[in-house]
């Protein structure tokens, strides 16, 4: 990691601190061009917005999908205070961002949480009704 990339990652950490000061969970992210120009910044706002999807990574992925053409998105880097969750990782992949650089891993994050605070996956069942479910998809791609 270069000195300039470290500065961008430190800015993402500062955004996380700002989110916490504002009453939200401490997560922050920014999106930068290949030369390090910051295009957009976001903080977690899940509590103040009363929106469980208001993660900074998801907000930036949505912004990039709206505002950048695919070629430009592919050259960007998201710098984020923590490794994106599954929801955000899916949005990042669909938005076509070039890469993600994070400060804390999911494992490191969970180690910082008190016992019993980890998110549990709900039980899931499927696949089911393949013949019916495929009908709306046929010919889409």
Automatic annotation (TrEMBL):
Pfam families to which the protein is assigned, alphabetical: dCMP_cyt_deam_1
Protein name: Nucleoside deaminase
Domain of life: Bacteria
Chain coiled-coil ranges: none
Stored InterPro entries: CMP_dCMP_dom (IPR002125), Cytidine_deaminase-like (IPR016193)
CDD domains in the record: nucleoside_deaminase
Organism this protein belongs to: Nonomuraea purpurea
Domain CMP/dCMP-type deaminase: 3-120
Lineage: Bacteria, Bacillati, Actinomycetota, Actinomycetes, Streptosporangiales
């Amino acid at each position: 990691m270069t000195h300039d990339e470290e500065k961008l990652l430190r800015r993402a950490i500062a955004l996380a601190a700002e989110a916490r000061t504002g009453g939200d969970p401490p997560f922050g992210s920014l999106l930068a061009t290949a030369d390090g120009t910051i295009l957009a910044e976001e903080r977690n706002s899940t509590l103040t917005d009363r929106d469980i999807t208001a993660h900074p990574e998801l907000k930036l992925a949505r912004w990039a999908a709206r505002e950048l053409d695919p070629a430009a998105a592919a050259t960007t880097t998201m710098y984020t205070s923590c490794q994106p969750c599954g929801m955000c990782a899916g949005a990042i992949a669909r938005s076509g961002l070039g890469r993600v650089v994070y400060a804390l891993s999911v494992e490191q994050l969970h180690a910082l949480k008190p016992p019993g605070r980890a998110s549990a996956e709900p039980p899931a069942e499927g696949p089911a009704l393949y013949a019916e479910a495929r009908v709306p998809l046929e010919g889409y791609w």
